[in-house]
Specification:
4 helices, alpha+beta, two-stranded parallel ribbon
């Protein structure tokens, strides 16, 4: 694997964010860099209340970006309440 992953992940440190949001993102960057540099797979779990849209889209985007950039990252989604995938979200994914 080349250093493309490092450039991509490190580039997020330069994104303009509210300082309260930037610290947790920097922690995530540190976690990803540590896992990847040690040859391990990073595991990300996206959690929202219902696990019907946001966390599932986050899982899909995260997983897609990991594949696109060749990063050893596995993505999962979960929620604190049992529900089904929102039908509008399913429709959005099925559109051309």
């Amino acid at each position: 694997m080349d250093s493309t992953w490092f450039k991509v992940i490190s580039g997020f440190q330069n994104v303009s964010l509210d300082p309260d949001r930037k610290e947790p993102i920097n922690q995530l960057i540190d976690y990803l860099e540590q896992k990847i540099k040690s040859g391990e797979t990073a595991k990300l779990n996206f959690i929202c209340t219902h696990n019907s849209r946001r966390s599932q889209f986050s899982q899909l985007w995260g997983g897609s970006l990991a594949v696109y950039f060749g990063l050893p990252i596995e993505c999962y989604s979960g929620g604190v309440e049992v529900t089904e995938f929102n039908p509008r979200a399913v429709e959005a994914l099925n559109r051309d």
